[in-house]
Specification:
There is one protein chain. This protein is mostly helical. It is about 65% helix and about 0% strand. It is globular and about 50 Å long.
Length: about 140
């Protein structure tokens, strides 16, 4: 027997709910001084608490996913900049994306540390740490 079980594909409405939760949570956490509760995120997303917790069993799971998304955006911008006709413009374009993503990542990192018990970023577990190095060829260069 294997330890991994194949998961069935999500229904379209379930996938939409998950995406909506992520969009709403990101917007809510981007608000200055915001620290929205799971109930507030559920309410804003228009989904029940069971749906929220089915997708993200804990607040740490939700914040970790948001953090991974920000890191993925930075990596995608780096990959997109590769091979540009104007390397200087590509670099500064990536730098702008990095700065914008960093402003979103900072509050998320603080929430991760608080939810993880106040350790360091590397103490938050494989879920977040695994997303830090870019998985794209640009990130490995």
């Amino acid at each position: 027997m294997t330890d991994q079980v194949a998961r069935p594909a999500k229904r379209a409405d379930a996938a939409r709910n998950r995406q909506r939760i992520l969009e709403v949570a990101r917007a809510a956490m981007d608000e200055p001084g915001a620290d929205p509760s799971m109930a507030e995120i559920s309410r804003r997303a228009g989904v029940g608490m069971a749906t929220l917790y089915r997708n993200f069993p804990s607040r740490l799971d939700l914040v970790s996913e948001l953090y991974r998304n920000v890191v993925d955006e930075i990596c995608a911008a780096a990959e997109q900049a590769q091979g540009a006709a104007d390397p200087g413009a590509a670099f500064f374009g990536w730098l702008e994306e990095f700065h914008a993503a960093g402003s979103r990542k900072g509050p998320l990192a603080s929430l991760l540390l608080a939810d993880a018990g106040g350790g360091t970023a590397s103490d938050t577990g494989g879920g977040t740490g695994a997303a830090l190095p870019c998985s794209t060829p640009a990130g490995r260069a």
